[in-house]
Design goal:
Number of strands: 3
Helix content: 55-70%
Order of helices and strands: HHHHEEEHHHHHHHHHH
Radius of gyration: 22 Å
Number of helices: 14
Largest sheet: 3 strands, antiparallel
Structural class: mainly alpha
Strand order of the largest sheet: 1-2-3
Strand content: under 5%
Distance between the termini: 20 Å
Length: about 400
């Protein structure tokens, strides 16, 4: 092995690669078991393996570009993502697809593509560039400069969030808000600005939830909301009263996970029918077949992923890389918390997939774009270590 080959293998993030291989095994196993429900009559295992292959190709290509190049491309990628979201709104229905009342997909024949999955990573890059450039232009922080930065961040958020809410896609919108919150926190904005804003946001959310439960008339008359729009909240809080309608998925998921008990029923031994058990509700399959032990093992695997990404973030010497990694951590963490939370009644159902485990080409490619950035930053980390070639 020559020095160049040795240098390549030394700089590759083998830990992250190993974690992704474990996710692939879990994903394929869970999807293979989900096939026994016969909901679609399609074998999704080879399709998921294909998307993992596509993800590997994306990561490999992205790894060879340096972080500085991504910094230069940030606004171009952001603009491309906005273009895709706009095209989704204006292109005729034959080329787009509506699912569960949301127009979020391009129907390309060989695959259905969800642009918002790519936009998440493009948005992370754009925000990281905004914060980095702001700090370079304002080395001496003041309250005024922090408010200006906050304004820049919210302007960057406004356009993609408006398009995604228009679809409408509440789950993805919440992911964008989680990314924004994470970068605001690590972006150096003073806490005396962040805390009042966070307090108002939490109070506002709690007030809306209270009114949805006890003062619906005010929301109907003030905001023009309709009764059916609150059904998801009611079915979350009391799913068994809505077991034949909005609460059907949640009741089935709770029954499946609960019936798995400690050790589960075994591979392909699930008995509870759960719709979409190969995508959004794949954690129900894991809970029923592998029980509390298997579910905890999957959660621990996500914990190791987040821990590893956090450790890499703390090693970064370049601010742009730090902000990008923070946004990616927020994106993945929110997905995991929301998906597992919605299948166990901890959080309302929003239709968010479980990263690297749920079946889905767009989700897999979107996550590959995010981790491709991490692989790139680890691979080129020596460039930012004051001239030291060691990691």
């Amino acid at each position: 092995m020559n020095n160049n080959q040795k240098n390549f293998f030394d700089r590759l993030d083998w830990t992250l690669l190993f974690i992704l291989a474990l996710f692939c095994i879990v994903s394929v196993t869970a999807i293979a078991s989900a096939q026994t429900s016969g909901q679609y009559g399609i074998n999704f295992v080879p399709k998921q393996l294909f998307w993992y292959f596509v993800a590997a190709c994306i990561i490999t290509v992205m790894m060879y570009f340096e972080p500085e190049q991504y910094k230069k491309m940030a606004w171009y990628l952001y603009g491309f993502g906005i273009f895709l979201l706009l095209a989704l709104m204006v292109i005729p229905g034959a080329l787009t697809e509506e699912r569960n009342g949301a127009k979020s997909w391009f129907h390309l024949g060989f695959a259905d593509i969800q642009p918002s999955e790519f936009m998440k990573t493009f948005y992370v890059l754009a925000l990281a560039r905004v914060v980095t450039k702001h700090h370079e232009a304002n080395p001496n922080k003041t309250i005024k400069s922090d408010f200006i930065l906050l304004g820049k961040i919210f302007l960057t958020l406004l356009v993609p969030l408006a398009f995604i809410m228009k679809q409408p896609d509440l789950g993805t919108s919440l992911v964008f808000l989680a990314i924004t919150a994470a970068i605001i926190i690590v972006g150096g904005i003073a806490w005396r600005i962040i805390l009042p804003i966070a307090t108002v946001a939490v109070a506002g959310g709690a007030s809306l939830l209270w009114m949805a439960l006890y003062n619906q008339e005010f929301l109907y008359n003030t905001f023009g909301l309709k009764p059916y729009q609150f059904a998801r909240i009611y079915s979350w809080l009391d799913p068994y009263s809505y077991s034949s309608s909005e609460g059907y998925h949640l009741v089935k998921s709770l029954n499946a996970i609960g019936s798995g008990e400690i050790f589960g029923k075994g591979f392909k031994a699930h008995e509870v029918y759960v719709p979409e058990n190969h995508t959004d509700f794949i954690f129900s399959i894991i809970g029923e077949e592998w029980g509390f032990i298997g579910a905890c093992a999957v959660i621990m695997l996500f914990f190791f992923l987040i821990y590893h990404l956090t450790k890499l973030t703390l090693q970064m010497k370049d601010p742009f890389c730090t902000y990008v990694c923070a946004g990616i951590i927020a994106m993945i963490t929110f997905h995991v918390l929301e998906n597992i939370g919605m299948t166990t009644q901890v959080l309302p159902i929003t239709g968010i997939p479980l990263p690297f485990i749920s079946y889905g080409g767009s989700s897999m490619m979107g996550n590959a774009l995010a981790l491709g950035l991490v692989f790139s930053m680890k691979f080129h980390h020596h460039t930012y270590m004051f001239g030291n070639d060691e990691d």
